[in-house]
Known about the structure:
The chain is an all-alpha fold. The protein is built from one helix and no strands. It starts with a helix and ends with a helix.
Amino acid sequence: MEVNATLLIQLFLFLSLLAWLSKFLFAPILKLFDERERRIQGARAEALELQKQAQARLEEVDARIHAAQKDAKLALLALQAEGAKFHREVLEAARQQSAEQMREAQENLKAEVAQIRAELMPVQADLSKQVLARFLGESQTMHRMEHTHA
């Protein structure tokens, strides 16, 4: 193999082309790849940050929901207690009203009995005589009927 001028010219052209391609093609492509990698890393970091924020907000929402459920349970218990108290009060008022009505009815009944007795006292003797007479009359009639049938 002989080293002549054409080999040196080809070597010079190759190295010149390599230098020119490095400056105008490879360097911009490598720069583009580096920029792409930098953006991907930035997007990953931003995505991780957003994911952390979303997780924090989710935990905050879960805590609020838990607190709201706890408050709702306490409110429900308070309402149930208030309802039970109202029920007892209404029931007690109804009992008292019923007892009062019963007492009034008994008093009215006693008054009516006393009034009827007072009205019947003067005629008691007459009624007794009439009842006795009727009883005796029926008894004698029955006694006579027994003798006639016997």
